[in-house]
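Project standup — Tuesday

K.O.: blocked on the structure for the chain from last sprint. Re-posting the sequence here as requested.
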Amino acid sequence: MKIIIAGAGDVGFHLAKLLSYESQDTYIIDFDGDRLNYINNHLDVITKKGDATSIKLLKEIGIEKADLLIAVTDSQNTNFTISVIGKSLGAKKTIARIDNPEFLNNCEIDFKKFGVDFMISPQELAANEIKMLLNQASFNDTVAFESGIFNVLGAVLTYKSPLVDLKVKEARVRFSSIDYVAIAIKRENVSQTIIPRGDTTFELHDQVYFSVPNYSMKDLYPILGKEQFNIKNVMILGGSSIGEKTARNLSKDNFIVKLIEKDKDKAAALAEELSDTLVINGDGRNLELLEEENIRQTDAFIAVTGNSETNIMSCLVAKSKGVKKTIALVENMDYIDISQTIGIQSLINKKLIAASNIFKHIRKGEILDMANLHNIDAEVFEFEVLENTKVTEKPIKDLRFPRDAVFGGIIRDGKALMPGGNAQIKAGDKVIIFCLPESIETVEGFFN
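H.V.: unblocked you, prediction finished:
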């Protein structure tokens, strides 16, 4: 599969990194020589310095043979232009990153006629992610599959969790009445993701990811040492497009929302646009203002200004005032890895979310859905099982599945089934798989 990526920023780099684990024929184009040098030193892809809107350049790298052209530069207009030119020159499929989310819901214009097959908006995706995190507020990461029949939930183990110091197999015996699968552990100050085995020990401050059927979600709270709580009052810092979209989403779902915006003109415009949201013109870093706006009675604080450090610090302040749930938008990818050590429940990066969303279009096999977990460099896939595929040949325990992958759940006829070693996958099933990047291609082979 030949893939051309226009733009070597965070989205382009993360895509290229995911693709570098596979035998894809990947090119990445950018003006910035330093970015391309960094990619050359770290990834096995082909880089090309120049303008991705150049017909000559695109022809030089064989655009007519491209299976996929992904335009993820910082400019929406440039991305549209690249997609239109690339499609005209023979690219089979094009994806453009856009900043204006209204394009996604526009029924009046068929963008495919112009050469843009798919569009993704990082802002729209981030706002949807925030809403999902609030709906499962006790967890710092959450992904729902098949409308919540199975859920992947992430949480940090505290001293209140009875899992701490237990081996995985011991926990399964002690909590045998609860259906769950521990699919990944991100250990404090350890870069590698751990795929839990029977003799793996849960440790204090581990970030653990579980795959849980909907009927067991309420039972997971006690073994994590957490209490289930609902979010009603929400305060948003920053009137960015993400802040505006989040306020609109939450207000529609009957959350009580306050939005603080420093710029007077922007605050006035937001007040007109968001009739169900209380918009406050002020500096959200001002402790006196936060106290005046009853920060102590706020259930969730969401910081989505354009400054990562402001978002992190304001969330820490909110937490110190007793706010139950804090979410910070960060641009620096390095901050994602330290979220569990600095005391903020959830850090999100819109570019990482966008890259994972685009990656769905690259996958082989019958993939219905996929998601990226924020604190680890890995993916969760939902496969549809076809007739006569390798995964149906034997029980799970005899499949010789990669050690860097694990079955998270089986959905059969709309019902959740646990993926025990004796379970037999059948055609028509939908299967949840957690997988580290280096094993993605091998896992796909089981479903092709």
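K.O.: great, moving the ticket to review. DSSP finds 15 helices and 22 strands in the chain. Residues 122-135 form the longest helix (14 residues).
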